[in-house]
Amino acid sequence: MSSAEFAFIDWLRSRTPAGQRVVVGIGDDAAVVAWPDPTHLVITTDMLLEGSCFRLAEAGARRVGNKAMSVNLSDIAAMAARPVAAVVSVGLPRAGGRALAEELYLGLREVADDFATPIVGGDTNSWDGPLTISVTLIGETTPRGAVRRNGARPGDWLIVTGPLGGSILGHHLDFTPRVREALALHNLVDLHAMIDISDGLARDLSHLCEESRVGAVVIAESLPIREDARKLAATTGRTVTQHALADGEDFELLFAVSPADGVRLLGTQPIAGLSLVRIGQFVEEPGMWLMEAGQRRELPALGYSHEFE
Fold first, then answer.
1. Confidence label for 225 from pLDDT (cuts 50, 70 and 90)
2. Helix axes 179-188 and 61-78, enclosed angle (nearest 10)
3. DSSP state of 53
4. Which domains does the chain have, with CATH numbers?
5. Which of 23, 104, 194, 207 has its CA 20 to 30 A from that of 265?
C-alpha cells in the first residue's frame, strides 16, 4: 500500500463516524456489523463507469458520489428493506486522484447520511483509465420480509410512484431513492411484487412479468410524464410515451397490489410527497401490451441493456 493510499485512508477514517451497529469500521481487513435475528440480510452492488453511467466533466465528482450511493439504495428500496451499511471501491485516475476521491466521498456521504447508512470500508486503487466506482450496500428486511419480483398475480393493479422519462437531463444524477416510501407502502398494504425503474419502465416491467409468470397491459394515457420527457420529445422525434417507457434511470418504484389495496392507495394517497398512479394491470396471458388511443398492441421490453460478447 502506497503512502498516498495510507494518507487517504487516514483522511477517510477521520471523517467517517461509526454507526450504532458498526463494531469494526475502516482500518481493519474487514468491517464487523452487529446483526440481530430474525431479519434477513439484503445485499446489492452497482458499478458505475465513466463514459457509460456518467460524464465526470459534466456531472462533477460529488454528484457522481451521490448517484453511486443512490442507485444502491434504490435497489434496497425495491425490496422494501432498510439500509444498514455500505462499502465503496474506487478505481481513480492517477492524475488528480486525491482531490477527486475526496469530492467523491463527500457526495457518497451526503446521500448515505440522509439514510443513516454508515460507510464501513472498501478499496482504493489508481490506474491510467477513467474513474470507476462500485458500492455494495447491506440492508435488512422488516418483519414482513422482502418484497420480490415474483409475486404479481393476474388482476393485480400496476402502480408507479412518480413521473417517468427524460432522466438524462439531470434526474439520473439528482434523484432521491424511494427507501422511506417503500417501507411505508410495505407497512400499509400487501405488496405482491416490486422493482425499481432503472433500465426503463417496459424492460423492468418485463422482469416482473417473467418472474411472476404473468402478463401486463399498460395504459399509455395513464403514464405520469416528467416535464423533461416533454422537452426531449420536442427534439428527438420520439413521443412522450416512448420516452416514459424506455428512457430508464427514473428510479421510481413499480409494484403490484390487489385491486382492493390499489383503490385504497389511490383514494387516500397516504405517502406524503408521493403521487401514486395506476398505469395498468397484470393479466394471466404471458406478454406485455400497450393500450393507446383505444388500440392494443404488443409492447416490447424497451429500455437499456449492457451489451457484450
1. very high
2. 10
3. T
4. 3-140 (3.30.1330.10), 157-294 (3.90.650.10)
5. 207
